[in-house]
Fold this protein.
Amino acid sequence: MDKINSGDTAFVLIAGALVAFMTPGLAFFYGGLVRRKNVLAIMMQSFIAMGVVTAVWVLGGFSLAFGPTVGGVIGNMDFALLKHVGIAPNPDYGPTIPFLTFFGYQEMFAIITPALITGAFADRVNFKAYLFFLVAWSLLIYCPFAHWVWGANGFMHKWGLVDFAGGIVVHVSAGVAALASVFFVGKRQIKKGENVAPHNITFVALGTGLLWFGWFGFNAGSALAANGIAATAFVNTDIAGSTAMITWLFVAWHKEKKPSMVGALTGAVAGLATITPCAGYVEPWAAALIGVLTSLICYGAVQFRMKKDWDDALDVWGVHGVGGIFGTICVGIFASKTANPDGVNGLLRGDTHQFLVQVGGVAICTIYAFVVTMVILKVISMFMPVRVPPEAEEKGLDAAVHGESAYELGG
């Protein structure tokens, strides 16, 4: 017990609360982007993840992610139902904080990751099928990824792959799964001339603000201590989000002839997603450059998606998937032990091996997430429809599925 540092513990608990705040933030972000007849449906998909994934995490998800390894591939069930997860520290996962604090912090990551996917199949997925998807996807994709990359004896961790706060574990997994779900579910029914523009941009702005605020806990908290690495991650997070927002604004302004609020906000989220794996490993100048580059790359990915007519409704693949892939590779380019003496060096510091490890990890996880997501959806479809009926989609999921309206005033 004498190893516990009260400052580190308080810091990580607060950071966990900030990450928890991101899921309601995501609900507002996505809720503003969809048509008004589907705003409650997509917000519900974020909020219900807070309940469902917490149950999964307690029952065994945490143990599969961080339990003693089985061949470097998955954890065993030693930590199921919080067995052996108490107030004593675990030397592998935050040696100065209670293991229970680490459990709670990681729980918030597990909650928001599958919720990110919902933006891709907005307006058309059966809520019952989504609940089953939440459980299966968390167990079969999120937990293995967390173990491979962050587990003390995960095979990618042993390779030397680093991911400070979730480039692969969160953004690649969700973004690639989003693309797979778009291919499986199919395009939305949109009548000719129907307006599919964001119905409430003020919600989008509110959601972005909450996400950005929470992201400081997401990235800085991943240091698992109130130290210089946390400070580096905090500053890098803000710098990358800011430079990405500015870059996206001007790129979109040049192309669309008007300075778009949604464009600026989307750019900020892209920058925040991309810096996530790098936050504690790069210097601030690199964070600024990463923010600029990621807006150019993610904006290009969104344009490519539009040309291909993939109906990723809220561009989860283009922002989170491509951003997570690029950010993870950026670790292999820009990482410096000047920023983090316990970290790694990238290509610019002469380490080609680290770059190849990062690229290899991205490739494996991209393929796995895509294939397994397709399999999960296929299996669910054998027992229930994944997509709502055409008449429900036309009416809107708020009324057809939930029997509620976001803007109906009471008598």
